[in-house]
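DATA CLASS: polypeptide
GOAL: derive structure tokens

***
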Amino acid sequence: MDKNVRREIILDHYQNPVNRGLTSDESYIFQNTSSESCIDNIDLQLKYEDGKIKDIVFDGEACAICTSATSILIKTLLGKTLQEAEDIITNYKNMIEEKEYNEKVLEELIVYDEIYLQPNRKMCALLPSNALEKILEVIKDEKEKKKSVD
């Protein structure tokens, strides 16, 4: 990807992030995530309904990489099933960690395909995916509990 296009996408999502602002709706699953080494501290809320991610919102203080990664992850995961979301997050994390990944599922997240060149920025890019992964685990646990009750 052209470096100018990459920079433009990241800056746009930093300056105009998707779904910024939390909700008081209790049907959303909440997760906070923060970095031990920098300013990044974000709250995420996800609404899962009818087998799909209906909404994700966030707020907090974070650098350009963390904020833009959060925004792009939200944009990419909206409307996806649990399995699709897990696949996207796994491939995204593999890309950041320089492991084998399927770029076709990443959509705009591919802008971080060279973030490994700046090792100190990897955590910034991974922070929102780690939090979203925890939310997806909560959803899976709730689904398992429902199965065992039924």
In short: The chain has a mean pLDDT of 95. The chain has one domain: 3-141.
